[in-house]
Amino acid sequence: MASPLSFNNKGTAFSHEEREKLGLTGLLPPIVETLDQQAERALAQFRRLSTTIDQYNFLTTIRYTNEVLFYHLLINNLVEMVPIVYTPTVGQACREWSQHYRWPEGMYITRNEKGKIRSVLDNWKKDVSIIVVTDGSRILGLGDLGAGGLGIPVGKLQLYVAGAGFNPENTLPIVLDTGTNTTRYHESPFYVGVKENRLADDEYYPLVEEFLVAVKDKWPNALLQFEDFSNNHCFDLLEKYAERLRCFNDDIQGTGAVIASGFINAAQLSGVPYSQQRIVFLGAGSAGIGVADEIVEVMIASDPTLTKEDARKRFYFVDSAGLVTTKRGGSPLQAHKVPYARDDYEKITTLIEIINTVKPTALVGLSGIGKAFTPEILKAVSALNERPIIFSLSNPTSNSECSAEDAYLASEGRAIFASGSPYDPVTIGERTLVPGQGNNMYIFPGLGFGSWLCQATKVSGAMVTASAMTLASLVTPENLSLGNIYPDLTRIREISVDIATAVIEQAFKENLANIEKPADIKAFVKENMWKPHY
Length: 534
Known about the structure:
Layout: H1 16-22, H2 35-48, H3 52-65, H4 67-76, H5 78-85, H6 89-95, H7 97-100, E1 107-110, H8 117-121, E2 130-134, H9 151-164, E3 171-177, H10 183-187, H11 201-218, E4 223-226, H12 231-241, E5 247-249, H13 250-270, E6 279-282, H14 286-302, H15 308-312, E7 315-319, E8 322-323, H16 351-358, E9 362-365, H17 375-384, E10 389-392, H18 404-410, E11 416-419, E12 426-428, E13 431-433, E14 436-437, H19 444-453, H20 461-473, H21 477-481, H22 492-509, H23 521-527
């Protein structure tokens, strides 16, 4: 929840006439400034702060008091500020959410609201276009952060506004606080959430059902995005509600689309066709399966002769027990792993043994295990390939499987690298390589904005794939020459316009759109983007 003043406050930008009319004369410094002048001062203040969490809290204060100034700053300094308002700094903000708590943000729904959630939603007095909801159970690679997980929807919605032009006044972050199994929060005197263990499924699912039904009734035109739900719930929720609500799961579908997009360009640079790719995934959770599913869709769209089963044979998943196979014994496989379980291998437990056996063309990390891609592993993959594809995608940076420098040094600068969190350019000899960041921000703003703008009945798989293929097409030859498989993030609003346009076009193809078809869809998207100005 932003301050009631934040959408209307102009601070020193109020004219003398406005000050007289509003009774502000004498309450503000005498100078009248432009938005650009205010932003220049705020940016200087931001840069003087020595820690990223202090910068995070500073920007939060700006947002709470002057929404227009905040988004003007963010949009014009994306590369510098996105790592502060979102990953990696948001990870620390979530861990320390209760210590830094100053004022209410969004909504908290707990078991105490069971049976009255619809009336509780009436306490939010503004119309809502987009909701990002989490239960705090699997925040980034940091685990169960309980109510502190609300920092992720808060940050995500800032990127929806900056990246695609949702009106910030119509955004709503929500945490379903169903407890936490992290005992240090139970013992903390400052923890703001429910100090109980998480609800069992027999209570959890009915609470979520009541919440989602209430949301659809209260805000039937809104888009809802699931965020950072644990693996034992996220697939079930998406499967159950994808046809009932205008919703998607960014960890599964957004991550899948952005990494599939990068893989399109990586495969092109590697010179290895899809039919000959062998992709080893370290991590078989929601993000890993989502990425594989979307790469499969891209493969099929690019080569209609491929079946889904043939495409899935290109993948080798590794979890805590080793290579995911039908023959390894032990506990039964979780349902989301079954489509990718190999039946042509026995039990193989270590990653280096799997690499030496499979001989992969690509190595993808979504395990949340920092430095899991050791120099030995990176050198082994690099020895197998002229242009090894190495994606180290876990967030935050401390959980990244390897750094850009690790990958480039092990491969003598030959690796096609992408990461989840940002890394600086790396110089190898006389070459400067620019690592690509597989940032979901490339996808979810445009995918969400397009889906909401055309009032799509649902967010279809084909709409997600359209966003991935559109993003891949926006990478310039200059980007590729530097080894960067993603476009410049500074172009995010242009990128989101193109993705939203493709998403709306696909929605009309599938008869999912519920608006009159615009004569010029791209112009329609641009006209509806909110821009920060007084």
